[in-house]
Amino acid sequence: MPLMLTIATRESRLALWQAEHVQQLLTVHGHRVDLLGMTTRGDQILDRTLSKVGGKGLFVKELETALAEGRAQLAVHSLKDVPMELPEGFALACVMAREDPRDAWVSPQCASLADLSAGAVVGTSSLRRTVLLRHTLSEMKRDDVRIEPLRGNLDTRLRKLDEGQYAGIVLAAAGLKRLGLGQRIRHIFSTDEMLPAAGQGALGIEIRADRADVAEALAPLVDQASWLAVAAERAVSRAMGGSCSMPLAAHATLQGDRLHLRGAWGDPEGAPQLVRAEAEGPVATLADAEALGQRVAEALGAGGAH
Ligand SMILES: NCc1[nH]cc(CCC(=O)O)c1CC(=O)O
C-alpha cells in the first residue's frame, strides 16, 4: 500500500544526499516522500571531539524525537553514527547496500603517508583512525608525524585541509564518493592497512518500532548481505561497550554464506601496538552474525582490549 512518508534528516550535504537517495527509491516504489531537515547537537558542537561531548547519540536524538512525535516516520543514518542500542520504541528497519566501506587519504601534496614531510600534521578526530595511523606510522618509523583533531562535516574538513592546516586527512571513501568528491581521494587504504569502523559506508533506516507498515515499505530497500556484515561489526562494538569514544575497528565481508569478521583495538594513550582478532563462519541470520561479533569481541578482550 502506498504511504505518505516524511524523512527526518540532518542538513549536512552528506545527510541530505542520503535522505534524498532513500526518498527517490521509496518514490519509485510508489510512496509519497517529503524531507524534514533538522539540526542536531552533534552538528552544533564543532570545537570538541565527539567522544568528549557524548558520542554518536548526539546526531540521532533530535531525529528520534521527530519520529516519536509523528512529524516524521523515517530517519536515514550513516550506520557508523548510530548507537549500538537504540532507545526503547525505535527499531533499525533497513540496512541498504553498502558503499565502499574503506578509509581514504586526501591530501593536496602527498600521494600517500610515505610522502609526508618531517613533522607533518595529519587530521582526524576518530580514535579508531588515530590508533590505526599511529600504528602504521610507528611501523614506518615516522613518529615525527603529528595527528591532530579535525571535526566538522565533510565540506568543513576539506576546507580546513585546503587552508593548509593539515598535510593530509583521512575520511570515509563512502561520503566522498556520494558527494561526487571521489577525485579528491589520493589513496584508498586497503582493509589491511586501515580496518574500517563498524557500519562504515552503510546506510541504516530507523523507524518507530510500532510502525510495521513503514517497515514493510522499506523491505525492498534491504540488502541482506550488507545487513549481516554490519550486524556482526556492530555486535563487536556492542559487546565491548562500544561508543565512538572507543578506538575500535570492525569489518566483515560475506563470501557465499560465510562471514569473515576482523576486529582491531588500540590504546590511544599507550603503545602504538594493536590488538587484533578475527572469526569466520556460516551465517544465515542476524543472530548468527551477532554471535560471530561476540566471539571477536571476546578474543579482543582476551588480547588486552578494554
Ligand atoms: N562520522 C561522520 C561520518 N559518518 C559517516 C561518514 C561517511 C559515510 C559512511 O560511513 O557511510 C562520515 C564521514 C567520515 O567518517 O569521513
TrEMBL record:
Its EC number is 2.5.1.61. It is an enzyme of class 2 (transferase). InterPro entries: HemC (IPR000860), Porphobilin_deaminase_N (IPR022417), Porphobilinogen_deaminase_C (IPR022418), Porphobilinogen_deaminase_C_sf (IPR036803). One of its GO terms (biological process) is protoporphyrinogen IX biosynthetic process. Pfam families: Porphobil_deam, Porphobil_deamC. Pathway: Porphyrin-containing compound metabolism; protoporphyrin-IX biosynthesis; coproporphyrinogen-III from 5-aminolevulinate: step 2/4. GO terms for cellular component: cytoplasm. GO terms for molecular function: hydroxymethylbilane synthase activity. Its cofactor is dipyrromethane. It catalyses: 4 porphobilinogen + H2O = hydroxymethylbilane + 4 NH4(+). Tetrapolymerization of the monopyrrole PBG into the hydroxymethylbilane pre-uroporphyrinogen in several discrete steps. Belongs to the HMBS family. Monomer. This is Porphobilinogen deaminase. It comes from Ottowia oryzae.
